[in-house]
Amino acid sequence: MAVASVFMFTAIFSAAFGKQSRRVEWLGAGIGMLGGLLLNLGGDLPSGCACAEGAACR
């Protein structure tokens, strides 16, 4: 989440110094944060070559 939130901190600090972010930039930041949240849900999705080939992972 630290990497996904970098834009938020950048936008906040730049707004403090008078540079406003555009709406499309905020939209991109929101999509990035949603992606970060999805990655951190902690689902039980296995990975590896054996799983990709359809073999049983457990």
Task: Describe what you observe in this structure.
The chain has 58 residues and is an all-alpha fold. It has one domain. Helix content is 55%, strand content 0%. The chain has three helices and no strands. The chain has helices at residues 6-16, 23-39, 49-52. The longest helix has 17 residues, at 23-39. It is elongated and about 45 Å long. The two termini are 29 Å apart. The mean pLDDT is 77.
Brief overview:
The chain has 58 residues and is mostly helical.
Strand tally: 0
Mean pLDDT: 77
Structural class computed from helices and strand pairing: mainly alpha
Shape: elongated
Helix content: 55-70%
SSE pattern, N- to C-terminal:
HHH
Helical region count?
3
- The low-pLDDT segments are none
List the helices and strands and how they pair.
Elements: H1 6-16, H2 23-39, H3 49-52
Fill in the keyword field for this structure:
58 residues, single chain, 3 helices, 55% helix, elongated, mainly alpha
